[in-house]
Each structure stands twice: as structure tokens, then as C-alpha cells.
Amino acid sequence: MASQQILFSPAELAYLHRSLSLKPPIRPDGRAPTQFRPLTAETGILPGTNGSARVHFSDGTEAIVGVKAEIEKTIEAPRAEESKPESNEAASERTRGDWLELAVEIPGQRDDEASTVFLSEMLREALLADKEFAKKLFINRRFHWRLYLDVLLISPPLSYPLPLLSLTTHLALLATRLPRLKSEGDEDPMFDDDWEASTFLYPQEGTATNGSRPPITLLVVAIGDNVIFDPAKEELAVAETALAVSVAEVRRAQKAGDMEVDSKGRELSLLSIRTIDPPSRLTPPGVPHTSNTGSSAFAPTKLQKAGDQETEGVWKAPLGGTKFGVLDGIIQAVLEKGGVADEVLDGLEGVELS
Amino acid sequence: MPITVLQPQPAAKRQAAAMSVDSDSDSDSGGGAEVHGEDILTPGTVITSNSQWMRGHGTYVQPGETAITSSLAGTLTKTNKLLSVRPLRARYTPEIGDLVVGRIVEVQAKRWRVDVAASQLAILQISAINLPGGILRKRTETDELQIRSFFAEGDLVVAEVQQLHQDGAASLHTRSLKYGKLRNGVFVSVSGIGGGSGVVRAKRQVWTMDVANAGGKVDVLLGVNGYIWISKHIESDTNAEAVGINRMEESVSSKVYSSQNDPLELSTMREIARIRSVILALVENRLKVDEDMVTKGYSEAVELGRESPDDDLYLGGEKGQRLAAALTGH
Amino acid sequence: MPLDTSTYSLALLRVDGRRWNELRRLHAQIRTQDAADGSSYLEMGHTKVMCIVTGPSEQQQQRRGQTSQRDAAAINVNVVIAGFSSVDRKKSGRNDKRIQEIEVTIANALASNLHTHLFPHSSITISLHVLSQDGSLLAALLNATTLALIDAGIPMTDYIAACTAGSTSTYAAGDDSADPLLDLNNQEEQELPFLTVATLGDSDRIAVLVCESRVQVTRLEGMLVVGVDGCKQVKQFLDQVVREKGAEMVREGAVEKSDAMGMVLDE
């Protein structure tokens, strides 16, 4: 079905805004500002894919992501002879973004609609941001893996689907395995038929490889000075600012002699912050008691102008941008040790990869 | 834990009840005493060929035959000689006299179209609302031009179903002081009737409760269509209640169509959030939503809230299950 | 040749070990998504599909210039085939004719089966997602749609139960002793002639019949008979799924039990 307008009455919006501006904010379902709704997650549901995951929230929104990998011939760009011999660093410098194809399917919307394209770009850019991704897909100088990520949103889009899709993509990538390479050098690739011997795209703990983990994108809103995570659609409707924050964990290879890294000591890297237009900007203002034309038979003598002093209890759409202090607060809350990103990544790591 | 990630629940083990797998077309031939799986009617199942019965909702008769066949999956209801099938789950169908909460989705020339979670939008005519300034005020052309000053798109309204049209669409009216535009509160939507999660038709759909923690009074309004409104109770003028028909003009206040909220205390807002969580927990755990359950659930929730130092309001997931267990244990 | 005729005539077993008249493993769940009006998940062998039904509800925006004056509910079917559903990753665009034809076939089958006259001015939206394909695609989609519509409580005349039937020999081979086959997988569908048939409940009335391969007309009747028989088996299975869910809901107290049935009615 075409994009449904989630309608709210000005009275509801005024109430929600007041409720969320309090210190501490009272969320409609009573959650803490950094508390996420419970979600159900499973991986390995599609045996025909290299990796798959399914996540669904308690409000019924559901997404499935499937990852498939295919061999592709690497097209060599003609280079002048003075260049250094091809090295791994040079290959990744070119950030082979076209080795990854990401498609998002939202029911009822065409794939060339602006919102769908925006979503897929946000997910894709977060994946490629660390420039390490291409290395994982490298086989030899003539061939590489091309990874196809198909993201399906199963339920009709009631709330902004970005965090759901991002979490599902993260899990699917963690569960993705590639067949083990048997050939050597630059010869035509030959792989081990035994799927048990396949290697994870994102190697598990303990293996001595550099490389980050797949990113997650969190949706954060700010109302007044309050920062709220995992907003429900009501909270998004009164948000003054909405941001999509992408973070990834960076894992460094353990060199001999290094101390045991504390499991809580994750190193997080902030990949991107994107602003999202909150739907609150488009809401009509509420009508206060005094200028309510319904109260008298005469036409009003003074019209409510936008920019008039706010009347208490009457909704007015938020204007203007975000304060720096609020942005700073959001980044702090996401990145600090034991902060939101840490908790979410902890929760996701607990999911068994089948 | 700010985030809880759960494993998917496997489909509940079906009890090894002796369910015979008879082919459904035989279900009218007296299944005997152990009617268990046979209790459920499915589309295409013949209920009876006996012509003394009349057919109601959820059934049909093949042209040229006398057998009454079910068109839904559900259970059978007999009212005198009328056979109908109650579906396991269905959308709300309006009945005359239902108290419903609706959201205005369209404003037309002399009426509004209201979403009441039914298969069609309901109609609210401008002649069916109370015009401020008095019940007996004459409707003028200016009223029609300023129709949005009464209700605009997105507004929530509580109304009663006045009549049903031929095609099943409902006509609403708000011609009473207890109906009208809603404010000072929050909205919750629970899925359609039947299927256990949903609002049941009861004698009292609206009530006022005293809430804990010095929250004052809170009104709860359970629309039969599954739309619920929880708000702070505003004391209406006691004079208005006692006034006779001659003084009705003054009793429709000028505030009726405003969307300005009255000042709300923190404690009241907290308790409203708590009631909302209780209702959502009832729905998640497949319990009926009616005055009794909500009131009992609320007192349980207050108890649960006392367990955590800062009175945690959230009732999703595990806490909600404890709440449900406590209620069904009664 | 998937049947590898030499071994087939020896043991009469197909590649996956089935005989000519055996259906693949069927698995289905109803009410998989609480937020939707009706939902279902169905597996026929390795073909996995999900169906979400929304409605009947009134659409404010009119699509494709249709007027809102309709005596019966409009049925909109939307099929999404995931890129990872087949062995080779293949993304089908919006204008894929094959998908459009599937959508129209399903919508037409439902138009005569659902009691849409009870919901004028409304529309019913059906979203189908194909997660994995291994033959019998249209049949699986029809079965999943039926289950989801029953879950949504939309009245209908009867189940639409579907399956595929084929023949052990291609048209070109002209083998007169060819046997009919039930429920073909992807490999078999690519090599052998087959048709998709759907019946109304367990009667012999056919609701859908699609045959896109060349086959001698003398073999057609045999295939059809086998197909219809397969549909009856599928209907039994679907009915069982619905009854179990219903009994579970009655046990949970979510729905009230039936008033006395059976002998009482016939007095």
C-alpha cells in the first residue's frame, strides 16, 4: 500500500511533546531513554544463501535479509607502468564499492522511490565506510566475490524501518560464510565443496586478522535536551531532530605479547551521522482556546501566525536546526563505554549463528 | 539491559488431544461426544442441510441448494433458530449504538470521514455534531466554510454509531456532552475484535479511575473498535450536569473544539503511561481488554513498579508476562 | 534428464526419492505476524513463501484512476520474489511480465471465491514474498494466500488448494507410455511438461489452471486427474493447519467454543 500518513491530532502531539520534554522524559510505553524494544532474531533461516537473518520487533515489524556471493572477474583499470606492483593496500584504496550490491524491498513502494533509495544508500555507505570491506571479497588479482544483499521488509512500513533493516543486515553479514579457497595464486578459483570448511566473512574472535565488524545504524531523536533511542512512531512524530548514527566496532589483530583485551573494551568508530527529516515538521498547528473560531459566530479578528509566542498546551511544529550541545550529547551516549552501541552489539553477539 | 534479543519461540506444542481428522464435509453428521477439532468450522464446511435453520453472518447457501455452509474459520453460534459463525479473527464491524473512537482522515463539504478500523470509513455529518454556543444554535453557512475549525484531519473524536447504511458504512454522531474532540491524553490502538486481543463490548466502555502516586483521576475510554483513549479527568462544571433543557445553550462550552491541552502534572502523565503499558501488555499476552482487566492489571502494575527503585513503567516482554500470569491466576 | 529414464523405469523413483504420486513435504503456519490482519507462511518442499493480508479497508487515494464507487471490494495482489530465492541471484524488476501474470492470476481466482460484495468501497491488499523457489511457485502462492485470507477472517466460498502435475516424458520424446507426475520440483519443471491446477476445496471444481509447456492433448486428462487428486490432499493439509490453530485459540480462551453442533442441529 502506498506510504501511509501516520496522523496525529495536535492535542496528542502537544501531550507527547510535553511528556518527552520532561526530565526524565516519560515515553508513551514507559521505556527508559536508552531502552530498546525487545526483538526476536534468528540467523541461518535460508539454506540456499551464503548468510541470512530474520528480525522482528514486538510491534510486528519484520525484516529478512539474504546474502549471496558470486564470483566475478576483476576488471583491471589500465595503469601507467610507473605504478607500484599491486598490493592489498592499493586494491582497497580504490574502495571497490561496486563489489557490493544492496537492494531494499519495501512492500507497496517502487524501488526507485526516494525513501527506498535513501535507505539502501545509508546501509550501503555504512558498510563501505571503513574501506576494509573490499579486502574480504578479494580472491586473487583476476577474480573477486561480488556480494548481493537483498533486504526484504515483510510488514507494511508503519515506523521508520532503518534500525530494523540495519540490525538484520548486521546479523546476516555476521552469519555469512564463503567457501574455502583451494586454489593458489592467480589461477582460476577452486573451492572446497565441503560447506563445513567454509570461512566466515567476518571472522570470529581469536583469529589474528585485522578488520572491523559490520556496522549498525541507530535511530536517535532529540526533544528539547532529551535524547531518545529506538523511537516509536509517536515519538518520531514530535521529534525536533532525528539522526541516523552508524557505528562499527574495530577489532585489531592481537600481536604476540599483547595483553588480553578486556571484553568490554570495544573500540567503536563512528562511521556517519545523517539527519532525517522528522515528520513533525509537516504537522499542522493546534488551535488554542482563545482564537477558536468555533466558539463564536464571528470570524476571528486575529489569525494565529507561525512564530507567535507559544501557548501552553497547543502544538506548534518545531522550527530550526539542532543545537551542537544536543548533537554532542547524542554522540557521547552512543559511543561511550557501556553506552548504547556497546549494549546493542553485546545483544547481537549473543545471537547464535547457525 | 537496554536491549533484549530473544530467540524465536517455536510453535507451541499442540496437545495430543484426540482430534479426528475427518473430512469436513461430514461434520453435520453428529460428531459424537469428543467434539474438539470438529468444533472449528472452516470455509466450505457444510453446517447443516436441515431447512428449519436460518443463516446468519459467516454463512452462505449455494444457489440451488439448501445446505448452510460456513464461509469463515471460526466457531458456531446459535441464537434461537439463527446459525452464524463467529470468526477466529476479524476486523471491527460497526453496530448501531457502539461507542467508538475515530480519527478524522478526510474533510469534505458538509461532513467528515472517520477511520474507525472497520472495512469502510465512517461518516460524521456536520448536522450530527454539537455546535458551540448551544445545542439549539442554528447551523449557518459560515459553519460549513469553517468546517476545519471543528474537526481537522488527524483529530481524534469519540462518537456513537447512529445508523448503518446499506453498504455497511457507519454514520456517527456526537450529540451529547460526553462525545466530541479528545485531548489531554494518549491514544492506543489494539487489533480488531476476536482473536483474544481486543476490546470486548461491555456495559461500561468509559470510566474514571483513581490512580496511585498522587496522580489524581484518569479517564479511560475503550472504543469498541479497538481504539482507546486515556486522558486526565477534567472536572466538568457541576452546574452543567444539573441544568435543565432550557439552559443547554450555555453548557456546550467554547472549549469543546479546541486542541489545547490543559496543564498536566508529571504524576498524572506517569500514571497515564502506566495504564497504556498495562493495556499493551494485555494485548501482547492475548487477554481481553475490558474495565475489569484494566483495573486489576493497573493495580498489579503499581505493585510491579514498586519493585524497582525508580518505578520502572515499562511492561513489555517479561514483566508483561508476569502481569498476565498474575491476572489469569485470579 | 531429471528423471534419468533408465533408472526411473527400474525403480520408479524420482531424483528426490519420491514416487510419481507423492507430494513433497508440506509445512505451513498461520498468524505469523500479529500486526497484519492476516498472515501465513508456507513451504512446499524447498519453495518457501510468506503472505500478508491487509484489509478490507478503505483506500483514500485512488489508484490508476479507478472511482471509489465499487460494489465489491477490490483485490490488490503484490508479489515480491527475493533476489536470493533461486540458486543464481536474480533481481526481478517491477515490470517483470511473469510476476505480473502471477499477480493477475491470483487476483482473478480470488475475485470469484471471496465474498467481496460484503465490503463495498474497500480494498483487500495481499503481499506475497517468495523466499526460496524450487518449483510449484504459483501453487505455493495460491495456498499461502488462502491461509492468510482465512486468518484475516475474510469470508469465502471455499479453500483454493493448488499443486502442480506433469508428465514423465517431454513432448519431443513422444513416449506414449509416459506416466503423470505429481508436484514437480524446479529441475523437473525445467525439463518436463507440467501444469498448475487449483480446485475449490475438495470438490472437482477447478479454480485455476495454467499450462505453459507443450504436451500432447491425450496426456492432458491424466495429468489433470492426478493434479486434482493432489489438490485434495493439499486441501486436507491446509484445513488441518486452520483447525489446529483454531482449536489452540479456543483452548487459550481467546475465542469462545462452538455452541452444540452435530446431532442437535438435525432434530
From TrEMBL, chain A:
Its lineage reads: Eukaryota, Fungi, Dikarya, Ascomycota, Pezizomycotina
Stretches for region Disordered: 75-95, 277-299
Tree of life domain = Eukaryota
User: Where is this chain compositionally biased, Polar residues type?
Assistant: 289-298
Q: Which GO terms describe its biological process?
A: exonucleolytic trimming to generate mature 3'-end of 5.8S rRNA from tricistronic rRNA transcript (SSU-rRNA, 5.8S rRNA, LSU-rRNA); nuclear mRNA surveillance; nuclear polyadenylation-dependent rRNA catabolic process; rRNA catabolic process; TRAMP-dependent tRNA surveillance pathway; U1 snRNA 3'-end processing; U4 snRNA 3'-end processing; U5 snRNA 3'-end processing
Q: Name one GO cellular component term.
A: cytoplasmic exosome (RNase complex)
Q: Which UniProt keywords apply?
A: Cytoplasm, Exosome
Q: Which GO terms describe its molecular function?
A: mRNA 3'-UTR AU-rich region binding
The record, for Pfam families, names: RNase_PH
Every Exoribonuclease phosphorolytic domain range: 35-179
Q: Which organism is the protein's source?
A: Cylindrodendrum hubeiense
Specify the protein name. Ribosomal RNA-processing protein 42
Q: Where in the cell is it found?
A: Cytoplasm; Nucleus, Nucleolus
Query: Which family is this sequence assigned to?
Result: Belongs to the RNase PH family.
UniProtKB/TrEMBL annotation, chain B:
- Low complexity bias (residue ranges): 7-18
Q: Where is this region: Disordered?
A: 1-39
Q: Where is the RRP4 S1 domain?
A: 91-163
Q: Name one GO molecular function term.
A: RNA binding
Q: Which GO terms describe its biological process?
A: CUT catabolic process; exonucleolytic trimming to generate mature 3'-end of 5.8S rRNA from tricistronic rRNA transcript (SSU-rRNA, 5.8S rRNA, LSU-rRNA); nuclear mRNA surveillance; nuclear polyadenylation-dependent rRNA catabolic process; poly(A)-dependent snoRNA 3'-end processing; TRAMP-dependent tRNA surveillance pathway; U4 snRNA 3'-end processing
Q: Name one GO cellular component term.
A: nuclear exosome (RNase complex)
Q: Where in the cell is it found?
A: Nucleus
Sorted alphabetically, which keywords does the UniProt record give?
Answer: Exosome, Nucleus, RNA-binding, rRNA processing
The Exosome complex component N-terminal domain sits at 41-78
Q: Which domain of life is it from?
A: Eukaryota
UniProt lists the family membership as follows: Belongs to the RRP4 family.
Task: State what protein this is by name.
Answer: Exosome complex component N-terminal domain-containing protein
Q: Which organism is it from?
A: Cylindrodendrum hubeiense
TrEMBL record, chain C:
Judging by the UniProt lineage, the source's domain of life is: Eukaryota
Transmembrane regions listed in the UniProt entry? none
Which compartment or compartments is the protein found in? Answer: Cytoplasm; Nucleus, Nucleolus
In the record, what terms sit under GO molecular function? RNA binding
Q: What family is it from?
A: Belongs to the RNase PH family.
Q: How does it assemble?
A: Component of the RNA exosome complex. Specifically part of the catalytically inactive RNA exosome core complex (Exo-9) which may associate with the catalytic subunits RRP6 and DIS3 in cytoplasmic- and nuclear-specific RNA exosome complex forms. Exo-9 is formed by a hexameric base ring of RNase PH domain-containing subunits and a cap ring consisting of CSL4, RRP4 and RRP40.
Q: Give the protein name, as stated in the record.
A: Ribosomal RNA-processing protein 41
